[in-house]
Amino acid sequence: MAKHKEEKTNVMRTLEQKKIPYTPHTYDPNGPIDGVSVAQALGQDPACVFKTLVTRGASGGYYVFDIPAENLDLKKAARAVGEKSVAMLPQKELLPLTGYVHGGCSPVGMKKSFPTVFHRTAADLPTIMVSAGRIGHQVQCDPQALLSLLRAKTADIIVD
Description:
Layout (H helix, E strand, L loop, with lengths): L9 H8 L4 E5 L8 H8 L8 E7 L4 E6 L6 H8 L4 E3 L2 H8 L17 E4 L8 E4 L5 E5 L1 H8 L2 E3 L5
């Protein structure tokens, strides 16, 4: 009987290449994909499961924000990256820009590197989870290693 080999995503391959340990997790890709639902499906605290949001700044630059199951405060996000304003990237532009679909977007392994900001709580957590680059797949890893890999900074970027 053949062993079932877990299919690796580009995110997993990138983490392995950079020697960043991670734990893969899966959930039903046909279920809800909002942060709280994904956290519940994985039996995790929603404060540790980060979603990746891509925005366009007033200058035309692109920015990546990773936040727990909360709402991104666009004004705080703009301040964090030195923009006058930022707006959510239209869903149809996400795949061509990042290589990821809505609900499966990861800060790791995008087609191009963009300035990335995690909510400030990420740095204080023992581990965080981000998308593994495919709906239904997450990776859990050390936030400091992830911040370092992405050259990301942290800031208060969620709605109070």
